Every structure is written in C-alpha cells, then in structure tokens.
Amino acid sequence: MVLLPLAGLAAGSASAAKRAQSRKEADAVLAQVSQGGPVPAAASRLRYLREESYAAEQLGPILRNTFEERTRRNLASLLASLGARQGESTLAKLASDGDSTVRMYAAQGLAKLGSRNTAVVLPLLNDKSSGVRREAARALGASRNPKMGKPLMAAARTEQDVEVRAALLEAAGTSGDTKQKPGLKAYLDSDSESTRFAAARGLCRLGAPEGFAFAQKLLGNPDKFVRRQGLALFEGVPAKKASPVLSPLLKDADRAIAAASARMLHQGGDAAALDWLVLASWNAKGEEKLTYEKELETLQLADDRRKAILRKAGVAP
Fold first, then answer.
1. Nearest residue to 263 (alpha-carbon basis) of 235, 240, 224, 244
2. Helix axes 209-219, 224-232, angle to 10 degrees
3. Which SS3 state, helix, strand or coil, does residue 234 take?
4. What average pLDDT does this structure show over 240-252?
5. What's the whole-number mean pLDDT along residues 217-230?
6. Residue 98 carries which DSSP code?
7. Most buried of the four, 44, 157, 251, 296, by CB within 10 Å?
8. In angstroms, rounded to a whole number, what is the distance separating the alpha carbons of residues 43 and 40?
9. In terms of residue numbers, what domain contains 317?
C-alpha cells in the first residue's frame, strides 16, 4: 500500500527534475542569443526542448534591459519566430519601437500568432519602412478580422512598393472581407505580374470563382513551373474551399504538385491530408520520397505524430 504513493512521488520528482533541466537549457539558449548567438539555431533548440512558451515569457524582461541594437533585433526576431502566445503582449509593445527592424519583427510575430490586436498594427501601414508595411499587412490579414479588409485595400491603392502592394492584396483576402472582391478583381488586369498574382491569391482565399479560374488556367499549362505557380495561389485557402481543386491533384503525375496539394489541404484544416502525406512518404523511395519529406518538414511534423499515423495505418509497430 505504501509503494504506490512512493512510486508516484518518485515519478513526479523525476518529471520535475527533467523540467528543471529543460528550463536550464532554455535559459542557456537565451543567454547565447543575448551574447550574439545565431537566432535560427536558438529557435530550433527551444522548439526541440518544447520551451517556446517559457522562452517567450523570459524574453520580455530581457528585451526591456537590452539596449545594444543588434542584440535587440536578434531577441525580437527570436520572439517572433517562437509563435508562443505568452509573447504577444511584448510583441504588441515592440510594434511601436523606435527601431524599424524591431517593428518589422514585431509585426511578423503578431502575424504568426494570428493576433487579434489590430490596433497596434494598423498604424504600421503608414510606416516609413517598406519591410514594416509589408509585415503589418500580413499581420492584419492573419487576424482574420473582416474589418481589416477596407484599410488594407485603401493602403494598396496608394502603395508604390510592388512587394508591399502584393502583401496588402493578399491580406485583404486573408482577412475574410468578401466586400473586397470587386476591388481585388480589378487588379487581375494589372501590368504587374506580382500584383495580378497577389489579387488572385486574395480572391482564392475568399473563395471567389475569379481567383480559382485564374489559378486553374495556370494549372492547365503544360509547363510544370507555371503549374506550380498556379498551385501556389491556394496557399492559405481553407480546405473546404480548395478541396474541389486540390484533392484531385493528389493523383497528379507531378508528385511535387501532389505533395504540396496535400500539405495545403492539411494547413487548410483537412486532417486526413496529413495522413496521406505521411503514408505517401512511407511508401515512396529515392527522389520521390524527398518530395514528400520536403512538405512534411515545412509542417514541422513531430516524430511521435508521424509514428502514430503509421501505427494507425498498420504499417509500423
């Protein structure tokens, strides 16, 4: 009778020790970035440790007490890349930072979170930095707030930077504001290819037939690179809207198109598409296998999730 509580206590103690060690490693990673260490490696390590939330909490005070420009930028970049809700309030404060690079990272981070805090981002549409304006557009779109469609389209009409204008048009579609369909349609006749494609992507995200028609015309081209351009227009489109076009492409002879279609369907909310992608990789060999793995890497699929899918399919122990 006494052994069970003792066993439970031992297990709890071991778990606490493991967590303490993990936190210690996370602190070491943050210290390395504060001393000039590379951000991508730090972000990767924190994800491996599953300490993104803890790191995001710690980065707030660290940033408040860091004044060297390059270090602050690196710390802001790391915070933005973590995608941890615990860092949202710090990112919101950084959106009005005096350093344009920091403001840009703040907008990136808020976009990654799909933050609904649009009030801190809206002023950035008029920022002097094109990079800040571009990331602000993406953040407003990622908020999925239809009220953002109007200011995004208004900014697109006066924006001179082609890349920023493209981001604004895409974001107008991502916001979900169907009232912006007519405005987006008008850009399908633009002299700028990037503007046309951005308008088509925005329309696809709104489920507009004109956007799908634009994309399907490209998908019907014999050139594989043109076809992939057409497929790219479905990035960010909900699976329910994209499925009539993307699902048949799972059987496409171009396995790169098939793999990317599965990844987009999964990201759009189709859980079964991930199973398809994992099993396709399991059954493939050589270059074809690498094609599927590229898309799975984009999804940052955890090993335990992959194993669970393979077990469910009965192809792995």
1. 235
2. 160
3. coil
4. 96
5. 96
6. S
7. 296
8. 5
9. 238-317
